[in-house]
Design brief:
Rossmann fold, two-stranded parallel sheet, 7 strands, Helicase, Ruva Protein, domain 3, alpha/beta, 5-stranded parallel β-sheet, elongated, 2 domains
Length: 216
């Protein structure tokens, strides 16, 4: 079975937690999706705030082919192979996780395909792109900053998981206390869901701060 964080990855923008400055009614990402004309984008923010999920949702809601690479393991060869595949699709999205780890040569390999529209680049980074993404590529991308999730965002997401996840909803567990859950997670949705899953396995009826500290 996939981890809870994967099982709860939202399929609709309306279920996306937080980042209302981007995805709310007046948010630029929502407007971009509604118009369907996608610029290349860099998502900058701390871990677990929805960078990868947002890229998936944009591609899904605009019905684009979606390709993904990890900058940790991919090189120029893999980039060129994806670009070749993307030529058979119209406006395919190429998502590169941790794009700041690409060196100049790897980033340069993307330039032509971004400029001629073969791909819509979406990169995720925890580092300031002004320093970590080369100027030629950065000038062809819009940079959007994602913020740490608030406690309200995290609580909404956690309760949704308990309510909707097939493995959890039959347990009929509630969140009685959440201070420890959110303090340990530090605004990281993935950490919250991972801890929630561990705590739910150990809980009888309610998730408490004591229980979270025991399983963390």
């Amino acid at each position: 079975m996939q981890p809870l964080a994967e099982r709860m990855r939202p399929a609709r923008l309306d279920d996306f937690a937080g980042q209302q400055h981007l995805t709310g009614a007046d948010g630029i990402i929502r407007k971009i999706i509604e118009k369907g004309a996608l610029p290349s984008m860099i998502f900058w923010g701390p871990p677990g705030v929805g960078k990868t999920t947002l890229a998936h949702l944009i591609a899904r809601e605009t019905k684009r082919a979606f390709f993904t690479l990890s900058a940790i393991s991919a090189g120029v060869k893999e980039v060129r192979e994806i670009i070749e595949k993307a030529k058979t699709e119209k406006g395919a999205v190429l998502f590169i996780d941790e794009i700041h780890r690409f060196n100049k040569g790897q980033q340069d390999a993307l330039l032509g395909a971004v400029e001629n529209g073969t791909i819509v680049l979406m990169g995720a980074t925890t580092e300031n792109p002004s320093f970590e993404v080369n100027a030629a590529l950065l000038s062809r991308c819009q940079v959007y900053t994602l913020k740490p999730l608030s406690d309200d965002d995290l609580l909404q997401m956690a309760n949704r998981a308990l309510r909707e996840d097939e493995a959890l909803k039959n347990k009929k567990i509630s969140i009685e206390e959440h201070r420890a859950l959110f303090a340990i997670a530090g605004g990281d949705a993935r950490k919250v869901l991972n801890l929630l899953e561990l705590a739910a396995e150990a809980a009888d009826e309610a998730i408490t701060d004591k229980l979270v500290m025991q399983v963390a």
